[in-house]
């Protein structure tokens, strides 16, 4: 075995940094971890072969009516801007981002891909936007155990225009299954209440490399994940009469 590498073929340091942010530490500690991770984040997720930004942007672009250039998008938990890069490649130009980590936002700012970036801790702060402001809202990679609570869904809906799109992702690895079940219950409840309709829920087997043997869904060294696309229901017009 190569020293400093695990059976999963990942450097130990990468594995430890990833594990640390998923451990469900208290909020201040978690934000500190993300601030500290910002400089190495992109090379770490490249080592993980993390495909969520690509998969989410491709799904949203497919669902979204052209042209993309005029659409206003909010990238929630934007991190260093991985999702923005993928959206930009698909013709989206008006991108706003929010994240709870100042260190991550600094990196995102340096990409030059965002028109606006704001600090916002999801689940604690409301989104810094008026109601029905965005044509689409993305939340990629942060809906998970120890990260963003599924209770943020109504807030995402609030800032989305009627008829607008929401693109969400979560992981299907063993330690996230309880969270995923809670998330899917909340997604379903909002659908039954007529708040939005589901356009896509795509399970992806090779989401990213697993950091431990136990987490590998099929024993193939990878964990799986899901991309969800929802469309906010337009306000029904009342019949005259």
From TrEMBL:
Pfam family for this entry, one: Methyltransf_25
InterPro entries from the UniProt entry: Methyltransf_25, SAM-dependent_MTases_sf
Top-rank taxon, per record: Eukaryota
GO molecular function, one term: S-adenosylmethionine-dependent methyltransferase activity
Residue span(s) of domain Methyltransferase: 74-164
Stated name of the protein: MET27 protein
Organism encoding this protein: Copsychus sechellarum
């Amino acid at each position: 075995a190569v020293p400093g590498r695990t059976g999963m073929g990942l450097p130990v340091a990468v594995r430890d940094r990833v594990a640390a942010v998923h451990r469900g530490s208290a909020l201040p500690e978690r934000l500190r971890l993300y601030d500290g991770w910002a400089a190495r984040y992109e090379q770490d997720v490249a080592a993980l072969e993390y495909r969520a930004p690509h998969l989410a942007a491709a799904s949203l672009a497919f669902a979204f009516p052209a042209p993309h250039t005029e659409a206003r998008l909010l990238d929630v938990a934007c991190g260093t801007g991985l999702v923005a890069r993928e959206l930009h490649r698909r013709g989206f130009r008006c991108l706003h981002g929010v994240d709870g980590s100042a260190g991550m936002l600094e990196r995102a700012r340096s990409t030059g891909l965002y028109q606006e970036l704001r600090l916002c801790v999801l689940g604690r702060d409301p989104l810094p936007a008026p109601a029905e402001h965005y044509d689409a809202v993305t939340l990629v990679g942060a809906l998970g155990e120890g990260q963003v609570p599924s209770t943020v869904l109504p807030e995402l809906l609030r800032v989305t225009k009627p008829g607008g799109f929401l693109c969400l992702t979560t992981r299907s690895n063993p330690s996230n299954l309880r969270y995923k079940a809670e998330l899917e219950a909340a997604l379903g409840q909002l659908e039954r209440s007529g708040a939005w309709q589901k356009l896509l829920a795509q399970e992806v087997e090779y989401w990213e490399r697993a950091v431990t043997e136990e987490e590998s869904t099929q024993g193939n060294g990878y964990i799986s994940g899901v991309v969800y696309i929802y469309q906010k229901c337009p306000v029904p017009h009342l019949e005259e009469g």
